[in-house]
Amino acid sequence: MENTLYGCDIVSMQDLPLSRIQLILEAAARLKEQRTTHLLANKIIAHCFFEPSTRTRLSFETATLRLGGSVVGFSSDEALSIQKGETLHDTIRMVTEYADLIIIRHPKEGAARLAADVSSKPVVNAGDGANQHPTQALLDLFTIQECQQRLDGLAIALVGDLKYGRAIHSFAQACMLFDVRLFLVAPDSLALPESICNTLKKVGVRFSFHQSIEEVIPKIDILYMTRIQQERFSEVQYQQVGKQYILTPKMLSSARPNLKILHPLPRVNEIEVGVDLTPYAHYFEQAANGIYVRQALLSLLLNKSL
Ligand code: CP
Prior knowledge:
The protein is 37% helix and 15% strand. The chain is α/β, with parallel strands linked by helices. The chain folds into 2 domains: 133 residues, Aspartate/ornithine carbamoyltransferase (Rossmann fold, 3-Layer(aba) Sandwich); 154 residues, 3-Layer(aba) Sandwich (Rossmann fold). The radius of gyration is 19 Å and the shape is globular. The relative contact order is 0.17. The structure holds phosphoric acid mono(formamide)ester. The site of phosphoric acid mono(formamide)ester (CP) has 9 residues, from helix 2.
């Protein structure tokens, strides 16, 4: 298959039509088997994290190092010349001189697009504000394919903060490429943005709105949990809403045998630790898959053929 990803930016799911997703998932499966190769030998990857991260940053670093590449970068802007008033534009303009590819996480929506416009090297969005997190969606798809042996014909519940969750936004857009049925479980104040719902409708994805996790559990193959962000509510509201979206082992008594629970992590209290011991928990495996998917993506962006 032709490598249509070579030299590209990955800023949003718009950059990832089905053919590119298939290319990445197939390469990721090969790299998971193979473990070490030298696909990034002599390549320098800039990891520009302006916002906290555990999984995305460390899995990109592990992916880079395992493929023989080198890492430069930072995990906050505290030691950057941004503190002296330098702009994001000029910061990226410089990093593009030092590295072969830039990975950026930033608290502002649109920062990754700005970086891609400035940079002459490929830019990968590792999360921009409440907007997009496309590499999370890729590893979500890889994990679902692996644990359900398919991406079509599945019933998937998205639970929690569907309004501000960038992982959810990217994943919901990825779902538009597959024959899936979505159950959207969220308080009204954190519902999936109308623009995404309209596009889901336009492309024919069936979806419905729900207030509780229990009512959807017997109907689904994937339960995709996310954190209810306490900062979006008053203390009283959070006490009411938060409790409604806490998954407990007891709630799984009506689950299908093949159900798998995903979560982009970090979790706070929305999945009780007891759920980790059930056969349905799959979020740590999901996070581990980030290495192979990010290995595949970096390799395809920086090599004409693998
Ligand atoms: N899933 C995710 O983006 O996790 P981190 O914020 O730890 O990178």
